[in-house]
Design a protein that fits this description.
The chain has 126 residues and is α/β, with parallel strands linked by helices. The protein is 57% helix and 15% strand. The protein has 5 helices and 4 strands, in the order ααβαβαβαβ. The protein has a 4-stranded mixed beta sheet with strand order 2-1-3-4, sandwiched between helices.
Amino acid sequence: MLKILFRKECRETIKDKKSLILIFFLPVILTPAVISFFPRYTMSLINEKMEQKFKVAVIGEDNSEIINNAMNSNEKFQIIPHERIIDVKELVQKKDIDVAIIIPDSFEESIEKKIPSKVSIWYDPS
């Protein structure tokens, strides 16, 4: 019974020229197009992200020389000195800056004395 149904469907498909085109020729044309398009598209996205500079706001202890020197040594970061924490929260939420680093008072003293110091980092995870 299944064999008879399969033969009937094959005959119907062979009679219909549009079905033949869709079954055989369309995949032959579309497959190379898709295979060549996606790698180029993903590479362009990767290159765009690699060239992106991150806007980093640094708040506290006169924007800490240690942090600024570390950030300035990497060309991927654009340092934006800031004074108020409240403004930075809004800027991160609005995506005007990518990251905010809040440095506590006496940060550099703690580092010199080899005492751990907490640094807050705010970012938008989306």
